[in-house]
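ok so I'm stuck.
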Amino acid sequence: QVQLVESGGGLVQAGGSLRLSCAASGRTFSNYAMGWFRQEPGKEREFVARITWSIGITDYADSVKNRFTISRDNAKNTVYLQMNSLTPEDTAVYYCALSSKYSGTALYTRRAYDYWGQGTQVTVSS
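replied:
not stuck anymore, here's the structure
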């Protein structure tokens, strides 16, 4: 089993920044990817960003490109999401997830991920 624990959410004013962290523990895999998703009340959980663990290839949703940065610290088994220039539209619960089997464009979808964190609330005030 894999445990994912997110932290770093909170309340911030529009234009501000937050950094989310997701610490992974438990079973390890030789080649996997991690992603961030977010979900607003009453809406589907949507892809935000992903990173391949071994060589660090990243990809982003168009809505966050050039504002958010995903990164990882291999030694700490932690993935980060640096969020800048936040807007009220970024308000959501943010989830990190791990995919042990998929790669490429499949990583844009929820079904590619087999482990999920509990989520952390991000609220951006106008």
